[in-house]
Every structure is written in structure tokens, then in C-alpha cells.
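3.2 Worked example (two chains)
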Amino acid sequence: MTDKSAAHIDWESRIGKPSDTRLTGVGELPAPDRLTAQGGTGLVLLHWAPVEGALGYLVHRADSVDGPYEPLDHLGGDVLAVPHPPYADTLVTPGRTYHYKVATWSDSGAGELSEAATGRARAAGATPAAVTVALDASAPTSELPGVWNRMIGAEHFSLLTWDKPGAGGSDVALEYAQALGIVRDEIGVRSVRAHGTFLPETVSVRADGTFDFSGLDEVYDRFLATGLKPVVELSFMPRELAADPEYTVFDYRALVSTPRDWQRWGDLCRDLTLHLQERYGKEEVASWEFEVWNEANLEVFWNGTQDDYHRLYEVAVRAIKAVDERIRVGGPSSAAAGWVGALLEHCRTHDVPVDFVSTHTYGNAPLDFRPMTRAFAEATGRPEPEILWTEWGVTPTHFHRVSDSVFAAPFVLRGMKSALASTDCLAYWVASDQFEELGWPNRLFHGGFGLLTVGNLRKPRFWALYLLSQLAGGRIPAAVSGDGADALVEAIATRAEDTSTLDVLVWNGTLDQSKVDGARSLDRTVTIHIDGLQPGATYHVVSRRVDEEHANIQAVWNELDGGDWPDAQQWEKLRAADRLPADQLPPFIANADGAVLLSIDLPNPGIRFLRLARA
């Protein structure tokens, strides 16, 4: 327990005044130029010249060249702007002409529209359209940053102490802990972010005004026993500190009010930090991230203003840094990529520490905030803040069937590949369907956010991250060409340091959620052209697939014709099918030039992983 009187600091006297100015260097941008619209099979493929300083691009479409041009909604339910070209419009009718314009996206919203381009999709033929992936196995390698496994989301950590029967009769605490172990061991996850550090079961206020962290101790002891690190999300507000103790969210009634006494909020953040150091050690706590609140730009999560959030952030970060400057603190932990520029501007204007910016998006690849963080570093002379997407996923909607679908698997790979160059972390939300925000699951496949079901069966999204984690060695270039290249069909390739193995991960997916069940017109035949192999050497090939017929646990459940929850026999069959089989393809011999051609069928949606090992 920490004494409130220790190291008392007047937090109020140290915070800056509200500011409505905006970080310079990311303002008005020109419209993109060189827009092209190339008709393909089941799609129109758009290219344009990137604009320096753009965070992303908003694609517009019209039925007439004269407009009106409206933003193209791929039904992801969140931010519509994409981070970079190319873009595959699959919301098309073959043979129909469409007109396109593109605007840059910055902190102030969409800019001016580009000149128009016109395209028309083709109908599917008798065989799938062709795509080629070209690799040079002898090319120099570069690092493949693990943006996908630095962090993952989870329901509040106090589920580790849950002692009531769970959904489908499950043991919530046991399965939750097992899920964390699975993502640690099979995906390589290193840290976990969860809401509710200050829930009533973890933190309370004694009669003398001191904070009781004994509930948090039990929760963190169990969490840290997993070998993972917590992301300490400073939420939600203890009842005794809340200005409005009835302003709540979720089924577990988390308090999302402003504090009635800002001094006490600072005391809470300081005392928490001291307590964690006392229990777990200063060096350990210095290796954790502290994130201030969750999605304060949504009224459902915050009854204050943006300036109130800046005050909340500043009081918190100054309180934590007063204990240990090394602890990394950031925010705004916002929904829909909002408020990032405003927080950076507040920190610039008032000399407030910020080690990372954090935000969330769903149904799309993450935007590129590097122009904003670089402008902050240039303006302040401070290190550039890291960019942490602390929530990301295929949909922001609870109980949406896309979460259980194969569609979501190539979506995950598209987002992660896009994030490799622009972010430090893209944390999938969440690990497990043991999740109670808007109510517990009512059946096994209910469209839960989890990578793992209740019972810890692996969904297709899980296998996408697993395959990313199987890529061995350094990254080599993978040049994709053909019908839908780099927007529908994408690839990542790696080579072991000793050149004995080559891994190729290729996928076929679209952002367009009207195609959640796939589309025959988007199926592709992929030729993988590999140069730079050892001439005359024999190579063995192992293949793994994720599609409607492979590694699709929901399809197995549908074949069992089950009800809401499996019986014992059905559980046995599901667990037997909960795997990603490896198929041995015929070996090949590299020709005299060290080259080989491999041809694979790649349905939409679908993933193919190939490992070539020299005999």
C-alpha cells in the first residue's frame, strides 16, 4: 500500500492551458496526381502518386464523370481513408463504367480531389485471372519488424480471477490464461493491453483517502506469471474520484467520468506507479508502457472535452514521470485515428512528455502517422514518438460474423504488411472470445473479437498471425504483378541466413466486406518465379493453406450441424480439427540458372505459405 502523503505534488499547477492550435507541417496538401484506373477481373485497380505529408488517401467514386463523387465505403465500419496506393475497388459490377477521384487525408481531414480516372471491371472467365510473384533468393535481406506480435489486446485482466461459470459452461479464468499462453507461444506476443486498471475489483479508496491496490496485486501476479508484460491502461475512473459516478459503459459498468478533483487523479497515477515498483521492481516497471485512458474522443468513453482529456493526460504523465522518467507514457488511445495531432500539439506547446502516440482503427489498414510524429520531433528537438496502434481489427462491431470468417485472415495480413514501414506496433483486438463488454457469448461462433473461440479453438485470423510468425530469416523483395497485384494479391518473402530455406507468404483478400463469403471473380492463379537458387540443387516444398476448406474451424462446426455449444463428442472433433496441416509438395530441381516456377491456386479469400528447403 502506498501512502498518499508521500512525495506530494501539486499536479494542477504543472499542467498547460487549453490550446486550439495544430501541429505545423501536416496541414493543407495538394491533390494526388497521375491517378489511373485499370480494369481487372472483378475489380478496378487504382494507382496514384503518393503525396509527401499525407497520412492517407480517401478514394471517391461516381457513376458519371461529372459526379457527384462520394467516398468509397468498403463496409469496414470505421476510417475509410487508406494509407497508400494501390487500391482495389471490388464493389463493382463487371462491364459498368466507374469514375474515380482521390483526396489526400491529413489531420484536418480530406483535401482537394484529384483529376478523374475511369475504369471498368471484367467478368470472371473460365479460369482464374493470373498474378505473378517474382523473387530473387540471393537478394540482400532486410529486417522484418514484428509489428504483429509486440502487443495484443485482451478483455480486462481481472478475468484471471473470475470464479463464476462462463459462456457455454467454460472456466473463464483458466481459458483466458491459456489463451494468453497460446498467443505468446505460437505468435510470439510480448505484451498485452487491456482496459480497466482502475476497476472496482482492482483498486479502491480507503476511508483515510489512500488507495488499496490489493485486488490489482492478485490480478497482476497471475498475469505476470504468464511471462508477458502489461500495457498499463490508465482507466477507468474510481467511483470515489468521479465527477459523475453514474456515467458508465459496458455490461461491467466501467466509470468513464472526468475526475471531480484533478489533484486526486494525479495522486492515483503516482501511487499506482510507486506501488507497482515496490511489488515488481523498478527495472521491470520501466519496461512497461503506460497509456492514458481509452477512446476519449467517443462520448461513450468520456464525458469531458478534448481539453479535459489533455488535462487528464498531462496530469497523469507528469505524475508518472515524477516517479521514474524512464517509464514510457502515451496517448490519446483514440478511436478512428482521432486526436493524435491535437495531443502532439498540446505536448509541443506546453512541453509535456509523450513517448508514443496511440490510436485505433478497424476494417482497414492503419494510416501513416509518420509525417506528424516527425514534425513533432523537428519542432521540439525531442525524440520522435513511437506509433502504437493499440487496437486494430477487421470490424469494430460486436457479434459480427466477419470475425469468424476466412475473409478476416488475408485482411490481417494486408494490414500487417502495410504497417511494417509506418508503425511500431499493430495490436490485434483481442486474443480471446472470453469477453464481456456488451454481454458474454451466446454461442460458440457468435462473431466475437477473439482470435480464439471460447474453448480456445483457433480462428482463421489466428492462423494468419501464426504464419507471419513462421517467416524465418530476413525479408527479401517480392514483386507482385498481374490482375490485382499488391492490392488484392500480396506477398512477403524471407530467406534464412544460411540460405537453406526460403519462405513465401502470399494471400488474396479485399477490404470490401460485401465479399465476406468470397467471390469467384476474385480467385487467382499465382505463379511464383524464383531466381537466385543454387543451380541443380533439389528443394523440398511444404505448403500450408488457409481458405474455406483449410484451417477453417467454423466450417468444421457447420459440418457437425451443432447447436449453440458443442457437446463432449463435438468438442473432441473440433479439437482434432484445430490445426494447420502441412502438405508436402513434389520436390523440384533448380535449373542451370538457379530458377524455378511454382504455380498455385489462390481463392478469395485465401492464404498460402510455402517453405522451400534445400536438400
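3.2.1 Second chain
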Amino acid sequence: MSKNTNLFTHFKSDFASGLVVFLVALPLCLGIAMASGAPLFSGIIAGIIGGIVVGYLSQSQISVSGPAAGLTAIILTAITDLGAFDVFLTAVFIAGLIQLALGFLKAGSISNYFPTNVIEGMLAGIGVIIIMKQLPHAFGYDADFEGDEAFLQGSDNTFSALFGVFNHLQLGAILITLISVAILIMWDKVPALKKLKLVPGALVAVVVGVLLNEFFTASGSSLAIGKEHLVSLPIPTSVEEFKAIIITPNFAGIMNPKVWIVGLTIAIVASIETLLCIEASDRMDVHKRFTNTNVELKAQGIGNIVSSLLGGLPMTSVVVRSSANNAAGAKSKLSAIIHGVLLLVCVLTIPFLLNKIPLATLAAVLILVGYKLAKPATFKHFWHYGKYQFLPFIATFLGVVFTDLLKGVALGIAISIVFILRGNLKRAYSFRKEEYVDGDVINIDLAQEVSFLNKAAIKLTLANIPENSKVVINAHDTVYIAHDILDLIHEFKTTRAIDDNIKVKLKGFKKEYALENSAETQNHVSIEHHYDFVKREMVKTKVVKEEFPE
């Protein structure tokens, strides 16, 4: 992809994807605010700030920030314990300051140590959660709030809620869901419709859903969907009500130790969820661009500070919005900014129109997003790579679905670390990088053991290789290469190398690594790793003379 830094380079595609994310984010912002026991507009404010402020400051081209379901329990408990929403906003302000400090302390680098199979397991788990949580809305049963991701729901759980749908079927909602799904699928599959890039399928589905329900209502049909099954955005009826939307922090509470504890808790949880989402977003990005996670923490910190000053909820980078953004064809971070602008403009100017959108239509959009995250091909992919890749993947998947995102990821990482520590009892690994200049042939020899713990160093090395270089990656001495590293090499060879005219050659990769070795007549990149049973193993990159036939 071109490295053009002009924000508006891909305006057409980014506007279309931003519109889709806006439609998805609107009910999520309201639902999360409701579940958090906060004013409804606090969720909208967080969505606006997450889109415009964080979207602009972030270096991620795909991720979208806003209020997160993972923080609802913390917010609900904190508002109750602190006694007032304005005191809680002071805690959010403190959380933003802590995140800003973490960014300057380069704490974002921890994201490099999230294994790929764990990230993919998390995405698949969230995909299944989205489907299970949206199916009741698709059938016209809206007892659960939009954005809920918890398996346990009081004395019930997600499965019992699904079975409960059969007692609350709404034929109008089912019909609109089926028509919306058909439109969305055709928009992706029919060549003539795919050419209409400026008109996203989700927008067409929403318009058709609104028109259908208006027809049902006007004709007195039993298929008409009631207000309880539509988007429910509060509409201020007076200047006083409009002014009441903006709530400022009560800084008198800054001396309360509980406020600091809540602020620290939000900062830690929000930062971890953000880093996980950023890593997932980079995985989804078809151009395989890497995000500076330290800059992201700073952006999130500033976003939470601004949100708290305007009466908004705390925010994180959110997988659901980011996935919808990627699925809608976003090319740059302008998409996230546009979604924030649309939230601001439409909530202020056409709330009465937004309140006509059936939740069933939005459920159809999210169900397809969920399917793309949890495609059966993903499970087959990790099964094919063996138990050391599949077990952490499936453990993360099950943990995310049946507990929550953080517990599921922690379980997957723990299993991955056990596998790696077993291997590292026999093999050591260290890394050294040298400067390169244009025209050099860079050789990289992989060591006997290359685990996901080496991901950060190798990612940095590949990212720093200059344009027009020649690189040889040599795996002759390698016994084990983590799937994460193979992915990095594959993405470097097939995407970054092509974009930057880097000539890459692979040597000595085993068949099970699924990386094709280069023919001797092809250009290549090499990485040399040397292993010594007495000394510590070292990965070295060195400049050598090597022929690269044109």
C-alpha cells in the first residue's frame, strides 16, 4: 500500500466504512451506558471522543475506540461506591493521566508478547459472542442490552437467553433480519453491487429496514416493530435538558482514596484491552501495518481525559467496532474519525430518524461481522499446525466465550508460556541488530529455537529494513519456529517486501512451515542465527556479498 500520509487519500472508502461503524456504534454506546448505570449520553460522548480525538492521535489505521463492555461492571460498581457520577468522572480523568504516563514509559511494548494463536482465539471467541448476543435481537427479543459480552447474566446465561427467544418471537423483526442479511451478502457477492463502493451494504440494509417498518406501521400490520425494538436515543426537549448532557468532574473527590483506586483499575484494564485490540487490528489489517502501541496508550489517555471533562465514559480500543470497520473496507484511520463526526452531527440533528432504526437490522450487520471473526477456516488453520498452536488457540476461544476477554487471553498465554518454557529449558535465544544501508544484502540466520518471545525483536528488525534492500532468511539450522514468527516472515515477504521493493529469499524452511523456499535464481533476504551449547545462542544479522540475479 502507498505510504501517502495524506489523511484524505482514501476518503471514499473510509467514508463508507465510517458510516457503517457509526451505525454499529450508536446502539452499542447507548447499551453500554445503560448497563453501566451512567447517563445515556455519556456513552455517546465517549464514542464521539474515541472516534475524533483518539482516532486522530492513534497510529492504528483500523482500530476504533469507544465505551467498552469489558468496563461495565467496573463502572457500575464504581458509580455506586463513589456515590455520584461526577465523582466517578474524576476517577476517569486520573485513569487517563495514568495511561498517558504508561505511554511515555513505553509500557505498550508488552503487546509484542501476545502470541498470534491467542489473539486469533480471542477474535474467534468475540465473533461467537457477537453472534450469540445478537441472535435474540434478530428475532425481536431485546431483553439484554446492546454491547453485552458476558456469558453469565444474573441467574441466566447466554444459552438460556437464546432458548428464551422462542417465547418472544417477533415476526416483523425476523423478516427484517432476513432481508438485511440477504442485502449484506449480495452486496459482497454480486459484482454489479460490489462496484457501488460509496454505498455500503449496511446503509442499504438500514434504510430498507426503516422503510419496511414504517410501511408495516402505516398499514396497521401485525409485523410492525414497536419502539422497544428500535434504537432509543434520548432527545432533549429544552435548552436546560441539552445543557444537562455535559457533566463535568467533581475534583473535590480527588482526595478520596477510592477515586484513585478506581482510576488505577480503569487504567490497567482499559490499557490491556486496548493493547489486545490493537494487536488484533494489526492482524486484521490486509496491509499488515504495525501500530506503535506506546503512542496508542498516549492517545487513549488523552481520550479518557477529554471524555471525563465532557461527561463521557472511559473508553478502550474495541474489537467489535474495529472488526466492523475492517469488514467494511476501511483503508486508514480517517474511517474512525468519520464515525465520530457522524455520531456528533447525527445525534444533534436527526435523533428522531435514528430512533426509527430497527435493532434487528443492526443485529444482521453484527452477526455477519461475528461470522467473519469466527470462520470455520480459522479453526482448521490452527488444527493443521498441531497441538502447540491449536491448544492455546482453543483455550483462549473457550475462555473468552465462557468467562471474559481478559481471563480467556490470560489462559491462552499461560498455556503458550508452558509450551515455550519446556522448549527453552533446552535452547536459549538472544538477539542483536546492526545498521543497514540501501543496497546491502542482509542475511538473517534463524536459530534452533525461535519462539513467540522473540517476536518483538524480529518484528523490529524486519520493520527497519530499508527500501530496495536484498534480504536472505535462512532456516537451515532451525528445529522449531513459532507460528507467530512464520506469520511475520510470510507477511513481510508477501506484503511489505512488495510495497518497498525489497527482494527476499528464503532458505532451509521445512515443508511443515508452509513457507516456500526461494529458487536460487530469485532475489532473497536472509537471517542468520547461530547456536552454541556452551555459550548463549545469538541471532545475528550481517551484511554480506551475495548475488541477486535481476
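3.3 Remarks
The first strand starts at residue 64 and ends at 66.
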